[in-house]
Design goal:
Strand content: under 5%
Distance between the termini: 118 Å
Helix content: 55-70%
Radius of gyration: 35 Å
Structural class: mainly alpha
Number of helices: 3
């Protein structure tokens, strides 16, 4: 029982025009989204590294003592009622 080769059983059916355009759109959209995600992850890694370096610098140098702040109560003073 040998079957003869015809165009129906020898080749895969071609997708319709709408399916082809949908596949192209899907592929393009996924490529754009993947590229954006890769850029976002690279930026996050770069910023994380900069933050860690900045924290390392600030932890090795002692913080300069600042001018002490006065509280609001000290600024307003004591009110007397007459």
């Amino acid at each position: 029982m040998s079957r003869s080769a015809t165009k129906d059983n020898l080749f895969k059916p071609k997708p319709s025009k709408a399916e082809t355009k949908a596949d192209i759109t899907d592929h393009t959209a996924r490529a754009i989204i993947g590229d954006e995600a890769a850029r976002r992850e690279a930026k996050t890694a770069r910023l994380r590294q900069a933050r860690l370096e900045n924290e390392a610098k600030s932890s090795t140098t002692p913080a300069a003592p600042g001018k002490p702040r006065r509280s609001r109560a000290a600024k307003q003073g004591v009110r007397s009622s007459s």
